[in-house]
Inverse folding.
């Protein structure tokens, strides 16, 4: 009920723990999600916890990210996030636990990967052998998130159109 049923609901996560060694280059500035926010009919809903929330206050014009009340506050980490994901049309995230949870739940998820990603995502493929519901979008060159999000937007437009037609 908190999420509602209007629009194409996209849960987003953009930043991992900046103190972890794996984080170098994998987190995405929230501003890069603008390309998806500009696709007519899309709704961005934050799945972000702790790190990166400060970016919401400085989101650029055109990047409207809906936030939900506190979730996953208790000892059952990810229970609320899993419930939220079950009510979304798509999850788009950087290489964080959000991708693994969406994949484990079989939810449609687009994973934005840095040019040379963590070994789990291999190279030269757009899918994951572990999570059939994941689609991988890779940087063609180091630091090029614009190409990643342009490719996502190209796939998102017809997806939303088909969703609206049904």
């Amino acid at each position: 009920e908190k999420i509602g049923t209007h629009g194409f609901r996209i849960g987003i996560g953009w930043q991992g723990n900046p103190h972890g060694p794996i984080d170098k280059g994998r987190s995405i500035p929230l501003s890069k999600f603008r390309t998806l926010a500009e696709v007519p009919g899309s709704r961005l809903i934050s799945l972000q916890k702790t790190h990166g929330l400060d970016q919401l206050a400085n989101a650029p014009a055109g990047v409207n990210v809906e936030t939900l009340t506190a979730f996953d506050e208790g000892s059952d980490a990810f229970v609320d996030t899993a419930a939220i994901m079950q009510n979304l049309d798509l999850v788009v995230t950087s290489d964080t636990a959000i991708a693994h949870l969406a994949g484990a739940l079989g939810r449609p998820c687009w994973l934005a990967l840095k040019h040379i990603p963590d070994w789990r995502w291999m190279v030269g493929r757009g899918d994951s052998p572990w999570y059939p519901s994941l689609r991988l979008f890779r940087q063609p060159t180091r630091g090029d998130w614009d190409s990643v999000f342009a490719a996502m937007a190209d796939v998102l437009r017809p997806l939303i159109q088909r969703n609206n037609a049904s």
Q: What stands out?
A: Helices lie at 34-37, 79-85, 97-105, 145-165. The chain has a mean pLDDT of 91. The chain is about 25% helix and 15% strand. Strands lie at 8-13, 42-46, 65-66, 90-93, 109-113, 134-138.
